[in-house]
Amino acid sequence: MSSNLIRGTFILTLGTFLSKFLGLFYVIPFYSIIGKEGTALYTYGYVPYTIAISVATAGVPLAVSKFVSKYNALEEYEMGQRIFRSGISLMLITGVISFLLLFALAPVFADIIIPEDEGFLSSRSDVIGVIRAVSFALILVPILSLIRGFFQGHESMGPSAVSQVVEQIVRIVFLLAASYAVINIFNGELSTAVNFATFAAFIGAIGGLAVLGWYWIKRRSHMNTLFSKSKGQIHMTTWEMYKELLTYAGPFVLVGIANPLYQFIDQLTFNNAMVEAGIEKEQAETILGILNFSTHKLILIPVTLAIALSLTLVPVITKTFVQQNFHSLHNQLTQTFQILLFLTIPACVGLLVLAEPMYTLFYENLSEGTHILAIYAPVAILFALFSVTAAILQGVDEQRYTLLSLLVGLLIKLSLNIPLIHWLQADGSILATALGYSAAILINLFVIKRTANFQFGKVFRMSLLILILTAFMALAVFSTSYIMEIFFEPVSKIQALMIVLPSVFMGLLAYGLISLKLGLVAKLFPSQYQRLKAKLLG
């Protein structure tokens, strides 16, 4: 299979994992600075920003990755260079327009999120301020994303990986320093600290752009040599290039904002629905912060592989599909699904089993947080499956069905969210999300089967084996945590850490040893397994 898929996946996975790792662990000091009162306000700014950034790029960065990969496979290298040059100007224009729109629409969002100031933790002016602070990042992030897409189209994942990590480091350093200074040095308002924290996205983008600029200078001569080898047999006008690009871009933007759109539905409906269900306004807003920030940060860690696979799959599958090499395509799809499930399922189940000490370790010992994390953790498997199945559909030119599946999922979420919250409170919101994603995934799988004539038999058999292995792992994790809780209670971060570390170690040991014994590691990661084996034996 492709060593390119595995190698590219591991490079991008490493970068994405480090970025997510930093994005997870910064919440420990950040939460201690702003507390649970500030987390809901923080998400009020970041969810609209995430949607706006996807609209600003219009899916162009990943579409460029597919466009470049397609024409590189045809040895028409100059086409990728042309779309890159014009794309930079387009991203700058759309970025500025999106910044101005989000800045101007902040009061409208605030009126929907906080219909009245009285009784809620955040005020209308607080929400306006945090949305406007984060909107500045829209000016730079589209250009940053486009350059990453160009490198990925050349199957060069290093620049994306390194720039992600640097961008995250710069953002987090500024975020923590600024929010700490506002609260603890200048005795400022909580809303001011959160405004600086969201503005950190703009500062981080500057750091990411600096890294990509360095890579571009370093690889410019190689790129020029490649462009000089272009066949020059395909001639397209600028409009024709953008017309093709836009057919790719639409589904990309929708897939990119799938999760934020689900969160945005909660942001618009959760507070009022909870109040109607008999929950106090302050408690409702606190639970929304737990749902959309605290637990969401944790459950996204198992999805890291899916994000990396999605980014890597597009150029690789596109190349195989264009070459009509269906045997190789089927092997790529089988191994992709198997690797995804092999890593994601046990991670999500482990998070479920260790919900209380994990939430305590990152935030505080809070019964609502523990409960929501335990219920929410398995849904991360659906997040991962949707990301990868959507990427596969884009790779085989079936983008229209990605749009259909997403819209069906969102319609289910929107239709069921309020009645399920009335019935089950926060659990109802999670259930509505799970039902929406499940419907979207089933549509994607059906289209993949029909379009690529792909048989899921091998994936299904591997899934059953992974579930059995996960059950053994869960037993090892639960037994270890049960023993550790005899000596430590998960009421403080230190005691929670003393429970989490040995439990995670025993889970990894049990799952890893059984997988090695059954030959799963050698089957799923052949080249990596052989290199590791050679180093250990030689």
UniProtKB/TrEMBL annotation:
Signal peptide: none
Keyword Glycoprotein in record: no
Stretches that traverse the bilayer: 12-34, 46-68, 88-110, 130-151, 172-190, 196-217, 245-265, 298-317, 337-355, 375-396, 403-424, 430-447, 459-484, 496-525
Lineage top rank: taxon: Bacteria
Keywords: Cell membrane, Membrane, Transmembrane, Transmembrane helix
Membrane topology: Multi-pass membrane protein
Any one Pfam family match given in the protein's UniProt record, by short name: Polysacc_synt
InterPro entries (UniProt xref): PG_synth_SpoVB (IPR024923), Poly_Biosynth_Transport (IPR050833), Polysacc_synth (IPR002797)
Main location, first listed in the record: membrane
Localization of this protein: Cell membrane
Name used for this protein in its record: Polysaccharide biosynthesis protein
Species name: Bacillus carboniphilus
